[in-house]
Structures are given as structure tokens and as C-alpha cells.
Amino acid sequence: TVTIAGTLAAALHTAYRARNATQRAIVAARTTGLVTQTMARDLESALQPNGILASEFTGEVDSLAFYTTAPEPGATTPADIKRVEYELVPGTGGRMDLVRRVNANLLNTVDEELDDEPICRGVSVLELSYYDGESWTDSWYSTALDNTLPLAVRATIELLPAGESARVLRSDQFIQLRCANENPAATEEGQ
Q: What's residue 191's pLDDT?
């Protein structure tokens, strides 16, 4: 009976550890899914950077700022134009947090500090790249590119869940921008 009890205890311990590891992986997968879903909602409604209330689209490897009409999560009414920023900032325990900042008051003449809305904690990697119709690039400055939007944005996010034995979870999302025009240079070369 001692052998059976020991075997059962070992099996239960193994099952408990496996359940905990699975739950951590599911939470991390849901987190990256929600993050990329939020980014996709904002980017799919990005506005051409050529208006008074819709200015530049600026993207780098680990940050992004643009104007959009995407509704806020849970909103039931159409959205107004707002400026949205995504950026990695230092978090707790030496880890990084991905934050979203929203400026919905574009007519304000005084620059105000925007609140950081953490949308993901424990990010080890955020890599953004921008597609112009021919190739991917690590940055996008619409003011230097005839006020055009990229055709698509690739967002790669890696999370390092808490715990020493935790696996890095990687998520790649390709987001097409609805208001983007084809790259003028690519169109001219193809004629």
C-alpha cells in the first residue's frame, strides 16, 4: 500500500504541474491574441496622413504612432478621430510592458501628458515592420514618403511568462491597412 500511495502521489504531483504549465500557456496565448487584436483594430482604421486632424504615421521597430477612427473596446457608437501610440516601456522586475496611449482631444492647443494604458506586461520582444508593396522595412515615416501609409504592418510579440521554466510565447500578426494606397514607386515601375 505504501508503494501504491507513493505512485499515486507522484502521478498527482506530475498532473498538477502539467495543469499549471498548461494554464500559464493558455493565459499567455490569450494575452498575445488580445494585444494583436487591439493593434489590428486600431491599424485597420488608420487614416491617410494628409489632413488637419490626421497627421503623420510614424513607425519604428518598437513603437508606433498614427491617427485612427477605430472604436474603443466595448464602445457601441462610431469613433472619432484620435491619435494612438504603442510603445514598450520599462515594467516591473526588469521586464517590459507594452502600453497604448490615446489622445482623443486633437483640438487641444496644450500638449498634455497621455496616460499609459498597459495592454501587455512581461513583453520580451516587440518587433514592428512595415510593408510598402515590395519589401518590409523597420521604420515608416509618412512625412518622408509622400504622406502614405504602409500597406501592412507585421507585429511580432514575444512574452516571457513568469517562472524560470516558462517558455517564450511568440505571436506574429500581419495587419493590412484599409486606407493605404499602393506604393507609388512600385506602381510606376510596373507600368
A: 41
| pLDDT value of residue 104 | 81
Burial 121-150 (b: 16+ CB within 10 A, else e): bbbeebebbbbbbeeeeeebebeebebbbb
Per-state percent for the chain, helix, strand, coil, to nearest 5: 30, 30, 40
39: cell is 493593434
The answer to whether 56 and 118 are in contact (CB under 8 A) is no
Residue 190's pLDDT is what? 44
Other beta carbons less than 10 A from residue 159's beta carbon: 25
DSSP code of 81? Answer: P
Residues 144/183, Cβ–Cβ less than 8 Å:
no
